[in-house]
Amino acid sequence: SAVISQKPSRDICQRGTSLTIQCQVDSQVTMMFWYRQQPGQSLTLIATANQGSEATYESGFVIDKFPISRPNLTFSTLTVSNMSPEDSSIYLCSVWRNYEQYFGPGTRLTVT
Amino acid sequence: AQTVTQSQPEMSVQEAETVTLSCTYDTSESDYYLFWYKQPPSRQMILVIRQEAYKQQNATENRFSVNFQKAAKSFSLKISDSQLGDAAMYFCARFSSGSARQLTFGSGTQLTVLP
């Protein structure tokens, strides 16, 4: 298995501000993923983050809005920039290891 | 787009009974993985069961088993002897092991277990 922690677990932010979410994995992984889960919805992939290269963003997500860092093989950050109420969601970090995908506990973001 | 479809937004089952959740998917690949995840109100995504596409034998984990029909692209989850703790949102997902390595989720099925 994989132990993944995320910080913060939840936050309430004002529109126009930015929030950086941290993801820490208990051991090295090549691929890390960031997902968004809007209220009552399924999970949608935002981007894939590989160490040493630019993140690969899915359709509908752009780097200016969701910049991602991947400084090493156990850590990544996702920033939600210039937030609006539509960004209120759960954001989940995930890793692929041993042919299984594991998820962090999520960060619940509310934008007012 | 290669999609994953869960046609049952909500299901209910009596405690100790058996329930089957449906999932179909679309893919052009021959090598992929299928998963069922459980998400209780705590929002933690919990892996329930995994199926490798190249394996013909259906995966089983205690009370959870799958019916994998590769030609039909169907991947249903059977929960036997349902317990109150099984109540959660269940997501079917497919991992593509090709160039676009990513997990694609279905829309989910909310399972209620009735005492």
What does this structure look like?
The complex is a heterodimer of chains A (112) and B (115). Chain A has 112 residues and is mainly beta. Chain A has a single domain (4-8, 17-107), classed as Immunoglobulins (Immunoglobulin-like). Chain A is built from no helices and 11 strands. In chain A, the strands form 2 sheets. In chain A, strands 2, 4, 5, 6, 9, 10 and 11 form a 7-stranded mixed sheet that branches. Chain A has a 4-stranded antiparallel sheet with strand order 1-3-8-7, with no helix packed on it. Chain A is globular and about 40 Å long. The relative contact order of chain A is 0.34. Chain B has 115 residues and is an all-beta fold. Chain B has strands at residues 4-5, 10-14, 19-21, 24-25, 32-39, 46-52, 60-61, 64-69, 74-79, 88-96, 102-105, 109-114. In chain B, β8 and β9 form a beta hairpin. Classes of the chains: A mainly beta (112), B mainly beta (115). Chain A binds chain B through residues 31, 33, 37, 41-45, 48, 58, 90, 92, 94, 96, 99-103, 105-106, 108, and chain B through 33, 35, 42-45, 47, 50, 52, 91, 93, 95, 101-108.
